[in-house]
Design the sequence.
């Protein structure tokens, strides 16, 4: 099949143009005067890096870590047992149950965010049931909405590895004297690490960089890195947007190393 | 094996919690879409008015058409190209294959907003006008890796000699791919296409960076209306239609799958 | 007979490991030739180069007197039965077999006839619409053969086609394959690492090890006159004893001189003697090589008897049992002494 290798050349070209070049531009804009909107000049300057000490950035960074971190922890704590439950269901409708978690994703994300906004507003459709919340702008509201958005993305990759896992491993460990807790802790958990890493990435990174959700549920006052990037780029301030993106990319690269470690070809990402 | 009762109760509770928190916004959306008033929530008035009004909301109809066109085109192109690329990647030696997959997975792991910025930068750099073509390219960009990820495992399951066997029997390389490889991996291709389609119609952030004037897909249209405080329940009606339709299809699909299994024994 | 394939100085390496080291070999038309050698010795690689799936680094490969380097696999009149059959999982038995003919745009009626004939040849009449995934190993293997021979290749390459079958089925198929080859008049290149299979089926056996051809010959040649220790031990169990070739037809080992049928060695050359277990007879102690029975194992058709001669163990196959501790004498005919260079 060697001759089929030629098929990847266009893909390499495509990825180079759409990933590597923009990535270089972002790096350039971070460390120099380079600017795609007006000047393609190049002189080293760390002006935009100075933005990283600006309170606006620091606040957004802190918020991103806080909200994304809490959301991810909750999603993992809830998602793992749920994935485990799904993987061990002995029903012919097993795939349907899992698929039912995909349906909400088919519903437009923005509309779902508006729905949560409604829930947390004092005057809302919930009044029909004599319920009324006033939580817009509160941390808890943002976290609830985030968990609702990203929980399925934690469950899918973990479910995928658990479902594929050979039950023989568990039986073998029981056979060798492990009790059910030990066999979970020493066999199932380590073998599902790849799925956990993928799940964490699929939850943490989007949560860190969300911008519509914090904007709506946060009532315009809670700023995350995503909001910052969006504001800066559409304000025409390319270098600050690039600098913030660069920070996000560094975080992403860190996680990427993790993936490459656990699952070289990223099969758990699906 | 003795059941761990405490553990399984916890699992059931958390599963119920999951469905509740994930479906709550969906229920709210459906409720708003069948409630008669936009501002008065004293008592429930059933109506299907918002569903009828979808057709009159020309802007929304246009946005729906754009969303579907982009989704269908992006899915088709990504599935074809992704399969070809996956076959290429599969034929690489282990080391290069891993390298390619690392690159392939960048758009998957990359937060949407960074992907959006990257595409924005490069399209700007090439002085492309934003609108349908850039949005289509962007959607192909972020759906392609998913097709590759779902086709590759199917390729790995194939007998490594399958391709050679086809050549041996007189097929050209192209014939061998079309007549032997593709039929054997079509499950992976279908799964990849479904994921691509889902990703495409659900996308907001990346599309948002491809926006231009009044050119909108559903997500960007709703977002722009939000800013102008012009959300009418037609949007909720449309969204409920999509959800009910997909759920119906899924259950139907599950049924037919099971009867198929039964027939085959 | 005419030479169908001529291979000269064929060399191939993967990365930095030399897998085929300057192979020289020719294959005659209508021959049943077997490549025999341990796992990893390069048998499959050699087949893949013949079929055109793998390029070579150096050397000449001729088909019918013409160099075939530039002919792609699908245009070579060569077909392969793959190691794990590589049946197309999405096609039924009929369409698997018809695959090559359809590509040749043969008329439908002719295809049907040809497939029917091929199925008859492999004794699978009536299997046309069966899903290949539901066939047994032996049936799959027959479909793979039918799929290849239906194209009427000049040369059929078979890569360990019998490896997955149980002993009984394997023996049946060995016989059937041989019959098929005679009936079809196609040249067969058969790969195996089972020496018995190689010896029973072939006109010519090619013994390979680590990318080199060690010996080419008829099964009788290979069995009776192995060229070296590796071949002797690979072709069935053997007793290999160091000795000295005093002169033509006279060899000395275990302290005794024996007449033999070998000649052409230097006088007093250091050699090794091969004695096949079934060629040695145990007699009551006399003046020859004497030893003590240390073990006896019943093997079904015969007993395997281990005799210790001054610290060297001999394996002897005999239909008569012996008691452990018996003192015995080894006896053999001069034709059974095979001498090879050390
Ligand atoms: N595509 C390849 N890339 C790298 N090394 C290879 C490749 N194909 C074969 N080899 C190596 O070449 C050597 C010969 O392999 P080959 O498959 O020809 O052996 P074989 O004699 O058919 O063995 P077996 O009896 O196990 O089938 C082996 O060491 C193998 O690891
Ligand atoms: Mg082999």
Sequence:
């Amino acid at each position: 099949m060697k001759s089929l290798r030629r098929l990847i050349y266009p893909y390499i070209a495509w990825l180079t143009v759409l990933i590597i070049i923009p990535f270089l531009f972002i790096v350039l804009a971070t460390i120099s005067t380079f600017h795609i909107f007006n000047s393609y000049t190049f002189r080293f300057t760390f002006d935009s890096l100075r933005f990283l000490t600006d309170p606006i950035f620091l606040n957004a960074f802190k918020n991103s870590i806080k909200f994304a971190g809490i959301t991810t922890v909750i999603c993992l704590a809830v998602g793992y047992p749920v994935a485990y439950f799904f993987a061990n269901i002995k029903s012919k409708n097993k795939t349907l149950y899992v698929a039912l978690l995909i349906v909400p994703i088919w519903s437009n994300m923005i509309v779902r965010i508006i729905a949560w906004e409604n829930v947390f507003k004092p005057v809302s459709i919930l009044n029909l049931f004599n319920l009324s919340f006033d939580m817009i702008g509160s941390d808890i509201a943002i976290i609830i909405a985030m968990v609702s958005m990203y929980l399925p993305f934690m469950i899918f990759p973990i479910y995928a590895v658990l479902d594929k896992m050979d039950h023989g491993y568990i039986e073998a460990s029981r056979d060798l004297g492990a009790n059910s807790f030990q066999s979970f802790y020493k066999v199932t958990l380590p073998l599902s690490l790849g799925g956990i890493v993928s799940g964490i990435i699929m939850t943490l990174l989007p949560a860190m960089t969300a911008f519509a959700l914090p904007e709506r549920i946060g009532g315009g006052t809670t700023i995350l890195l995503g909001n910052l990037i969006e504001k800066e780029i559409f304000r025409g301030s390319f270098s600050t947007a690039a600098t913030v993106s660069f920070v996000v990319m560094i975080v992403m690269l860190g996680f990427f190393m993790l993936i490459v470690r656990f699952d070289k070809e990223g099969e758990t990402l699906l | 094996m003795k059941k761990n009762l405490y553990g399984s109760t916890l699992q059931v509770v958390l599963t119920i919690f999951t469905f509740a928190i994930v479906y709550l916004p969906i229920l709210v959306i459906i409720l708003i879409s069948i409630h008669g008033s936009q501002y008065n929530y004293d008592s429930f008035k059933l109506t299907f008015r918002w569903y009828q009004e979808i057709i009159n909301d020309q802007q929304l109809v246009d946005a729906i058409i754009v969303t579907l066109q982009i989704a269908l085109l992006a899915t088709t192109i990504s599935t074809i190209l992704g399969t070809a690329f996956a076959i290429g990647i599969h034929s690489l030696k282990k080391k290069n294959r891993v390298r390619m997959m690392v690159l392939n997975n960048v758009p998957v792991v990359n937060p949407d907003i960074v992907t959006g910025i990257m595409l924005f930068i490069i399209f700007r750099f090439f002085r492309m006008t934003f609108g349908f073509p850039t949005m289509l390219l962007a959607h192909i960009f972020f759906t392609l890796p998913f097709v590759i990820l779902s086709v590759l495992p199917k390729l790995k399951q194939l007998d490594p000699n399958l391709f050679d066997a086809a050549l041996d029997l007189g097929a050209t390389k192209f014939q061998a791919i079309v007549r032997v490889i593709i039929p054997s991996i079509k499950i992976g291709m279908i799964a990849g296409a479904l994921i691509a389609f889902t990703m495409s119609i659900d996308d907001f952030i990346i599309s948002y960076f491809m926006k231009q004037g009044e050119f909108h897909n559903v997500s960007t249209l709703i977002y722009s209306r939000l800013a102008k405080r012009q959300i009418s329940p037609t949007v909720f009606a449309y969204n409920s239609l999509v959800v009910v339709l997909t759920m119906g299809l899924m259950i139907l699909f599950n049924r037919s799958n099971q009867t198929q299994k039964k027939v085959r024994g | 007979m005419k030479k169908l394939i001529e291979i000269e100085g064929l060399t191939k390496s993967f990365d930095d490991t030399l897998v085929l080291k300057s192979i020289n070999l020719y294959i005659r038309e209508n021959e049943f030739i077997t490549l025999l050698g341990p796992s990893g010795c390069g048998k499959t690689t050699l087949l893949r180069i013949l079929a055109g799936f793998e390029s070579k680094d150096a050397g000449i490969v001729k088909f019918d007197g013409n160099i075939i380097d530039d002919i792609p696999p699908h245009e070579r009149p060569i077909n392969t039965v793959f190691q794990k059959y590589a049946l197309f999982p999405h096609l039924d038995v009929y369409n698997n077999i018809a695959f090559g003919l359809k590509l040749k745009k043969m008329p439908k009626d002719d295809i049907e006839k040809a497939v029917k004939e091929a199925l008859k040849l492999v004794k699978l009449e009536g299997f046309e619409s069966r899903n290949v995934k539901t066939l047994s190993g032996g049936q799959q293997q027959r479909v793979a053969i039918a799929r290849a021979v239906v194209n009427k290749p000049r040369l059929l390459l078979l890569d360990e086609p019998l490896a997955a079958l149980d002993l009984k089925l394997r023996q049946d198929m060995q016989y059937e394959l041989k019959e098929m080859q005679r009936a079809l008049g196609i040249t067969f290149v058969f790969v195996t690492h089972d020496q018995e299979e190689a010896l029973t089926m072939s006109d010519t056996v090619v013994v390979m090890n680590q990318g080199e051809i060690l010996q080419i010959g008829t099964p009788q040649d290979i069995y009776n006159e192995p060229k070296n220790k590796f071949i002797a031990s690979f072709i069935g169990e053997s007793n290999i004893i160091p000795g000295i070739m005093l002169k033509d037809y006279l060899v000395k080992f275990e302290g005794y001189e024996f007449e033999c049928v070998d000649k052409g060695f230097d006088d007093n050359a250091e050699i090794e003697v091969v004695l096949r277990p079934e060629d040695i007879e145990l007699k009551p102690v006399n003046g020859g090589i004497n030893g003590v029975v240390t073990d006896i194992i019943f093997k079904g058709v015969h007993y395997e008897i281990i005799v210790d001669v001054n610290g060297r163990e001999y394996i002897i196959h005999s239909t008569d049992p012996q008691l452990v501790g018996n003192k015995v004498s080894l006896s053999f005919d001069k034709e059974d002494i095979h001498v090879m260079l050390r």
Q: What stands out?
A: The radius of gyration of chain A is 22 Å.
